[in-house]
Amino acid sequence: MSRMRSRGLLMSAAAGLLALSACSYAETVVPKPKETTSTAPAAATCKTTAADLRSYDPNRSGGPAVSRIRKAGVLKIGVSADTLLLGARNPSTNKIEGFDIDIALRIASELGVKPQLRVINAADRIPLLQSHAIDIVVRNMTINCARWEQIAFSAEYYHAGQKVMLRSDLAATYQGPQSLAHVKVCAPAGTTSIDNIRKIEKDAEAETADTHTGCLVKFQQGQVDAITGDDTVLAGLVAQDHIYAAVPEQKALTDEPYGVGVNAGDKDLVAFVNAVLQQMRSDGSWQKSYDKWLRPSLKVDPATFQPQYGRP
């Protein structure tokens, strides 16, 4: 198969994934790709420390937020539908599935309500939580101090690391972030990945897309030469373009602790989510989900992490 034909098929597959609009739990529309600017966002006014990983103590007692959700009978969850392994639509079943989805569905089950999955972009996560358009976000979202100023987080449920995927020829000579000078690197707008790459290698030509699938399309069209993101996300991208893309051996550029995002005022919901996550770790369901979705591609044991509580 020619390289052009191979890339055409991969691009068609990515476009087909974005075109599907029916969610397995609620009708939704996958956000359409659109051009985004490369203007750097305003710098954060805080520096993330270990204390920022602290969340509220696990508690199933509930409160106003939990009562509101149970009365509605639905948990509105912001997810990805194009992040293979974490949250992606299976074209055979039309269901969204992955590691993050397992966690989202378990939270809804423990609340005793139906899950309503809403496909959102990374940049949508905080505004939709703040407006209560959704109840939680389970979409490979990194916990940091700047976001704590806007929303609340569960305790860490997965420890990822930001890395770089490059064209195979560039991957063969990759020596670290300095190799990205004057290289076009893509990451979704509104993510820590795009912020980090601008700080780590100021001479990298950072470009954005709405999603990592949007970055993959740009990569396959030759508009960018590299994609940066969490190792979990890049593993899914390489699975879609394993001939021309590679993630070279490298030290993670940053630590990316994932948390479930929640409206800042819904502390009782955060406490409930923490209790569910704690149970998933103790009953083996967290490990079972990791082994199913992430281990086959990452080929390593999960990075160790210890959930932190005690937030006042």
Can you describe what's shown?
With 312 residues, the chain is an alpha/beta fold. It has two domains: 50-158 and 256-298, Periplasmic binding protein-like II (D-Maltodextrin-Binding Protein, domain 2), CATH 3.40.190; 162-254, D-Maltodextrin-Binding Protein, domain 2 (3-Layer(aba) Sandwich). It is 35% helix and 19% strand. The chain has twelve helices and 14 strands. Strands 8, 9, 10, 11, 12 and 13 form a six-stranded mixed beta sheet that branches. Strand 3 and strand 4 form a beta hairpin. Helix 1 runs antiparallel to helix 8 (212-220). The longest helix is centred in the N-terminal third of the chain and has 17 residues, at 3-19. The chain is globular. The relative contact order is 0.20. The model is unreliable at 1-43 (pLDDT under 50).
Mean pLDDT: 87
* Count of individual domains: 2
Low-pLDDT ranges:
1-43
Helix fraction by DSSP (H/I, runs of at least 4): 25-40%
How many beta-strand runs? 14
In terms of quaternary structure, what is this?
Answer: single chain
N-end to C-end Cα span:
59 Å
Strand content: 15-25%
Class based on secondary structure composition and strand pairing: alpha/beta
Shape: globular
CATH superfamily of the largest domain: Periplasmic binding protein-like II
CATH topology of the largest domain: D-Maltodextrin-Binding Protein, domain 2
Described by strand count, sense and barrel closure, the largest sheet is: 6 strands, mixed
Number of H- or I-type helical stretches: 12
Question: CATH architecture of the largest domain, please?
Answer: 3-Layer(aba) Sandwich
Radius of gyration: 19 Å
CATH top level class name of the largest domain: Alpha Beta
Give the SSE string: HHEEEEHEHEHEEHEHEHEHEEEHHH
